[in-house]
Amino acid sequence: MNSVCNAPSIRKGNFVTVNVPVKQYSTFSDSKTLPADTVYQVTYVSRNNPNLIRIYGGNMVGSRTINASDATVVPGPQCSVKVGDMFSSHWGYEQTNVDFYCVVKVTGKSAWLASMDKTRTYDGTMSGTCRPVLKQPIELGAGKQYRIKVTSDGKVCFRLTSYSHAFPYDGGDCFFSEWH
Fold it and tell me: Which residues pair with 121 in a beta bridge?
């Protein structure tokens, strides 16, 4: 006999609160726990056992696998992206690369980001600060389409590549370093 579950199924990308405390570091015996009712984002649902989900967020280092029965789906953070919003991406290994982007089009769950030029001011031989060269979105071209993502604390971001994400640009100088 099949049993019917009235609870909504938890899917990857859902935001949940967990009804039990969650260890901040799962591998350390003296690990601190994060309180119940913290909001996390579901990053994985097991195909073999849909009662196991992986959560991330809430000042937790890394992710944790918990029982879905210990979680309750909650509305996710609301965010908006509009044409003209600027984003920056900081990435690199042994150097810090900075790229700037401007939103040139928004439809539903996607936005088109166009790459922006930048000016650099060197403070040392291979490091300094940079800022975007401001232009109107129409001057930047069509851009490339990316899915709008939301972090567990409600910030908008875009996954550009496997190694870089773009977050809202705060308008200040951004540190960069080079390696030759």
Answer: 129
What is the pLDDT, as a whole number, of residue 124? 84
Separation between Cα atoms, residue 33 and residue 63, nearest integer Å: 13
Q: Which pTM was predicted?
A: 0.65
| Residue 86 confidence (pLDDT) | 95
d(CA 147, CA 108): 9
Beta strands in 4-126 (DSSP E): 15-18, 22-23, 33-34, 39-45, 52-56, 63-67, 71-74, 86-91, 97-107, 110-116, 118-122
Share of the chain above pLDDT 70, in %: 82
In sequence order, the β-bridge partners of residue 5 are none
Residue 9 lies in a domain: no
**Domain containing 54: what range?**
15-74
Give the pLDDT score at 116. Answer: 93
Q: pLDDT under 70 in the chain at which residues?
A: 1-8, 23-35, 57-62, 77-78, 152-153, 180
- Rounded-to-integer distance, Cα 117 and Cα 82, Å: 20
Neighbouring residues of 59: CB distance < 8 A, sequence distance ≥ 6: 24, 34, 38
Q: How many domains does the chain have?
A: 2
Residue partners of 128: CB distance under 8 A and separation at least 6: 120, 121, 122, 175, 176
